[in-house]
Fold:
Amino acid sequence: LIAIVSALFLYFIFWIAMIRHAIRSGIRFKILWIVSMILFIIPAPILYYFFVKRPMAKQEEIRNPEVPSFF
Structure:
C-alpha cells in the first residue's frame, strides 16, 4: 500500500512539473498540451515528456554545451 501511495505521489509531482513546463516554455500548441494533460492525466504527461520536453533539452544541450571546469 505504501508503494502504491508513493508511486502515485511521485506521478502527481511529475504531472505538475510537466504542466508547469508547458506553461512556461514557448512550445507550439501550448493550450492543447495543457488541456490534454489536465483531461488525460496518465498518458498525456508521459507523451509530453518524450515528444516535447526531452527533445527541447537535447537542443539546449547542443546550443549551450557545458564547458568543463577545472577550478
Remarks:
- The longest helix spans residues 2-24.
- Helices lie at 2-24, 30-39, 43-63.
- DSSP finds three helices and no strands in the chain.
